Amino acid sequence: MQDSELNDLIPEMQAWNNGAGIDPKGWISGSGSYELAIGYSLIFWPRFVLIDDYVLRHGATEESLREWDRATAGDHRSIEAVINHVHMADIHMNASEPTEAQLRYLGRILKQIHEVKLKADFPDRTFVVSFPDEPGLDLLHYELTFWQVRD
Q: Rounded to two decimals, what is the model's pTM?
């Protein structure tokens, strides 16, 4: 990724140092916090739970699983896909409106992370990690999800 692309994705960096700008490492150092870093670790290295034979995001409940089981007539793929989905635009609810480029960048990175983490945590299972990385979608449609491939 070129510096100009990073400047487009993180425009705030350009305003630092009286307009001279700052690099991403300096920007993180100057505007982040340890609390944010810990919180982001939960997004960028997700935790999963196993309920029955379903692999779900940490925080999913058996009650929610049962509700979706009834609603989908036991369609395992649909259940996992809906419980595991995350809208990129919902990561920061009180932030300024994200750009399409920002959401697509985050989605691509999180897709790769999920593929690696699911394989590490469940080496005996196969997953599909889905992210619609195409231009022109409604911002809410940039959504990451995953489900198990079953026989």
A: 0.90
